[in-house]
Amino acid sequence: xxxxxxxxxxxxxxxxxxxxxxxxxxxxxxxxxxxxxxxxxxxxxxxxxxxxxxxxxxxxxxxxxxxxxx
Length: 70
Hints:
Strand content: under 5%
Distance between the termini: 32 Å
Shape: flat
Structural class: mainly alpha
């Protein structure tokens, strides 16, 4: 069942509104997680960043950097 719809605006419908009479079905009924799983080596994924954080920045500097990224 449909649980949520994200929308930027809501406006009254015009013209043929039949397209909105049903919720579209998903392309795949069940997600196969194994299909997307990838083996990670020592220099990949989380292992590539563990132990790499210099740790000298203040919380405020990190917050400002993250704000600049978003």
